[in-house]
């Protein structure tokens, strides 16, 4: 395990600091035609929807910039063709918004070395391939503070898409927030093995509610879990965007994305001729992630707690995965006073104390 | 004077009509699609030319259309075979997954350096895995009359979850930072690409299999048997043909072909096992098989046409900035009309004018759909 961590550390320091790659020459705004490859439909009301909000924010910020998108592109060989068609139709910058596109991004990027590729949530880079994602765990932690303050039964439920580091990290951050506010609370996890399946999302939420959870958290693409919570009359923390439309009375808040931040950042560098491959991982400080407006039931004392924790994160004095952190068995994973490194966070594959659930091995 | 409209089954289809009906259906589809596009504020002619140009306009477009047509052809041949026997294999998707899982297992546990040996191993493993998946449903059907539509459909989900189990569990690549996928296949397990495109050598299978099954169904005794059995299982069993044996065999072959399609996708294009790789070929293949009227050679053509529709649909989103849902409406309209045209091939509509007031209500037999 140590060896792997060391390897990962070397690997990430290479990609994070490996600025040996030169910057790309500037491209005029009118010629960039950014092309977006979305995993879901923009009407999913969640993940792809928020990416599209970011895309439009980007278009507004750069007059003359026109972009294209393709929806519901499967994470298979079709993705390569979609990216190549975008390039063939004039895109000079490609944004691919899901992890499973990774190998295809690298393949197509090899074929078009003069085109810039930005891959969301992956870890492979090249001279013309950068990655972007956000420190969603920071917003997850804040939402956990709210959720932990609102539970009465001390049992929370969490609908998880896939047992991968991104989702696990979110569950851990949420749980740390929950238990900071309420040390007795526990978070039950159900995996649905899908990013976008409203039926499964809803069923999983219902199952959690039936098993006693009185606050639901979620990591999936649609508003189906919040709907289930509203119907059952339990509180819910959405995800991706303000999901209060799906749970008007029970929505507490939601950790949300502002993809426009990274899209504008990228285009800005492309226009100036300062773009070079890097792994962007922005958080609360940059506005990449945030909390949606609070529901009416959230008391002021909780809002104050969130504000003070947020301040610690934004100022950089403290981050979420700060030792001592124990895993489910009680073993210390992060010693007192230490922060987890980005590499460790990106490959997180264990649950913190307080999570009730299993990571399939 | 009164008018009667009667719908009558055709005894035979005039040869001109065989050609005319699909053409008219396509025309009607494009016309109504055009109205739809017009109201979206998009020039129909421009949209249609985008579809054709992106899929047939240059060597890249043609090559990608073929890439799409390869798995479609194989999967459609697979379901065609079972449909010929009136056995409804809806499980090609799961059989594709099983073939892919077996391919990955071969790469993981039996990797050899020799390319031909590796190809043969993967081929056999994928065929066996897909075949067994099909044969299970076939056996249940023939032995206990368990509805194969249900079993094949349910087995799709079992196969998907099995794939998830392997990529999240024992086969997860340790260097993938915990992401669910196997290690990248070694070069010896990759099917070569042809002519600098993404067309892989699965192409030859996609051309060979339709020919083979066309020959088998048309010229061999066994082909005759399964066609007869499809139409009349009782008569077939009186003639001494074993229903059980043939259903299991047909479902095994059907599943095997789908499994091999899965191998082609994995070893040809994907290069590693990860979830969600198929893109629903097993389901689209059912439409393809019906559009081709279960004719093995027509399947090749229809798969190619379907490839045009799918590849063109992607480009339509890019060039015309149409949302996916509009593209799907357009694709749906085309399929609806072309399949609907079948009606006019099977039935004819006779309109007659009779003198005098109606004396009795329309008789029952003039409404055969009742």
In short:
With 361 residues, chain A is α/β, with parallel strands linked by helices.
CATH-derived architecture of the largest domain in chain A: 3-Layer(aba) Sandwich
**Percent in helix of chain A:** 40-55%
| Unreliable runs of chain B | 366-370
The helix tally of chain A amounts to 12
Fourth-tier CATH superfamily name of the largest domain in chain A: Response regulator
Please give the radius of gyration of chain A in angstroms. 20 Å
CATH topology of the domain at 64-313 in chain B: ABC transporter involved in vitamin B12 uptake, BtuC
Q: Calculate the mean pLDDT score of chain B and round it.
A: 86
- Helical residue percent band of chain B: 55-70%
Count helical runs of chain B: 13
**Mass-distribution shape of chain B:** globular
Average predicted confidence as pLDDT of chain A: 90
How is the biggest beta sheet of chain A arranged?
Answer: 6 strands, parallel
Largest interface: A-B, 41 and 37 residues
Rg on CA atoms of chain B, Å: 23 Å
Tell me what the CATH architecture of the domain at 64-313 in chain B is.
Answer: Orthogonal Bundle
CATH class of the domain at 64-313 in chain B: Mainly Alpha
How far the N terminus sits from the C terminus of chain B, by CA atoms, comes to 25 Å
Overall outline of chain A: globular
CATH fold description of the largest domain in chain A: Rossmann fold
Content-based structural category of chain B: mainly alpha
């Amino acid at each position: 395990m140590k060896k792997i961590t060391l390897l990962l550390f070397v690997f990430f320091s290479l990609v994070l600091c490996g600025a040996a790659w030169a910057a790309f020459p500037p491209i005029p705004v009118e010629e960039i035609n950014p092309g977006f490859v979305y995993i879901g439909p923009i009407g999913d009301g969640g993940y792809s929807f928020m990416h599209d909000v970011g895309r439009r924010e980007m278009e507004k910020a750069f007059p003359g910039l026109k972009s294209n998108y393709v929806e519901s592109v499967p994470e298979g060989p079709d993705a390569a063709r979609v990216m190549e068609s975008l390039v063939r139709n004039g895109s000079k910058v490609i944004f691919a918004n899901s992890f499973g596109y990774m190998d295809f991004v690298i393949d197509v990027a090899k074929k078009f070395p003069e085109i810039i590729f930005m891959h969301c949530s992956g870890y492979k880079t090249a001279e013309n391939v950068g990655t972007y994602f956000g420190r969603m765990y920071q917003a997850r932690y804040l939402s956990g503070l709210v959720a932990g303050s609102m539970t009465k039964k001390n049992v929370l439920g969490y609908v998880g898409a896939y047992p991968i580091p991104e989702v696990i990290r979110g569950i851990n951050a949420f749980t740390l927030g929950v238990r900071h506010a309420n040390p007795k609370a526990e978070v039950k996890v159900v995996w649905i093995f899908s990013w976008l399946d409203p039926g499964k999302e809803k069923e999983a939420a219902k199952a959690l509610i039936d098993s006693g959870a009185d606050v639901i958290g979620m990591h999936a693409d649609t508003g189906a879990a919040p709907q289930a919570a509203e119907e059952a009359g339990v509180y819910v923390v959405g995800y991706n965007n303000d999901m209060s439309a799906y749970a008007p009375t029970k929505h507490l808040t939601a950790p949300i994305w502002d993809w426009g931040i990274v899209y504008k950042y990228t285009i800005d560098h492309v226009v100036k001729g300062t773009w070079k491959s890097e792994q962007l991982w922005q958080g609360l400080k940059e506005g990449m992630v945030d909390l949606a407006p609070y529901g009416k039931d959230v008391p002021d004392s909780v809002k104050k707690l969130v504000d003070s924790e947020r301040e610690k994160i934004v100022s950089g004095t403290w981050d979420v995965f700060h030792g001592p952190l124990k895993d489910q068995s009680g073993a210390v994973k992060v010693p007192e006073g230490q922060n987890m490194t980005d590499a460790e966070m990106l490959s997180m594959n264990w649950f913190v104390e307080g999570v009730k659930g299993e990571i399939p091995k | 004077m009164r008018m009667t409209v009667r719908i009558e089954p055709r005894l035979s289809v005039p040869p001109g009509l065989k050609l005319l009906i699909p053409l008219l259906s396509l025309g009607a589809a494009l016309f109504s699609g055009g109205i739809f596009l017009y109201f979206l504020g998009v020039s129909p002619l421009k949209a249609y030319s985008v579809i054709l140009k992106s899929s047939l306009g240059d060597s890249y477009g043609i090559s990608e259309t073929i890439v799409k047509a390869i798995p479609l052809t194989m999967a459609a041949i697979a379901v065609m075979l079972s449909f010929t026997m009136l056995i409804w294999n809806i499980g090609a998707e799961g059989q594709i997954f099983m073939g892919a899982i077996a391919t990955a297992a071969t790469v993981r546990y039996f990797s050899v350096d020799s390319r031909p040996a590796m190809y043969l191993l993967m081929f056999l493993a994928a065929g066996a895995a897909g075949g067994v998946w099909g044969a299970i449903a076939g056996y249940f059907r023939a032995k206990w009359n368990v509805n194969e539509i249900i079993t094949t459909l349910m087995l799709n989900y079992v196969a998907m979850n099995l794939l998830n189990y392997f990529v999240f569990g024992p086969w997860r690549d340790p260097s993938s930072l915990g992401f669910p996928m196997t290690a990248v296949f070694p070069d010896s397990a990759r099917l070569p690409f042809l002519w600098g495109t993404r067309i892989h050598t699965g192409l030859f299978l996609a051309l060979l299999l339709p020919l083979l099954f066309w020959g088998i169904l048309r010229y061999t005794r066994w082909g005759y048997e399964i066609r007869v059995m499809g139409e009349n299982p009782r008569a077939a069993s009186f003639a001494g043909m074993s229903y059980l044996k043939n259903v299991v065999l047909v479902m095994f072959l059907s599943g095997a072909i789908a499994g091999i399609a899965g191998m082609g996708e994995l070893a040809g294009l994907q290069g590693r096992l990860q979830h969600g790789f198929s893109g629903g070929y097993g389901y689209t293949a059912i439409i393809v098989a019906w559009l081709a009227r279960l004719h093995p050679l027509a399947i090749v053509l229809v798969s190619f046409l379907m490839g045009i529709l799918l590849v063109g649909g992607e480009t339509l989103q890019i060039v015309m900035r149409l949302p996916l849902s509009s593209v799907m409406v357009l694709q749906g309209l085309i399929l609806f009309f072309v399949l609907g045209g079948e009606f006019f091939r099977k039935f004819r509509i006779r309109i007659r004018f009779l003198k005098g007031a109606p004396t009795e209500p329309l008789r029952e037999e003039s409404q055969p759909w009742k």
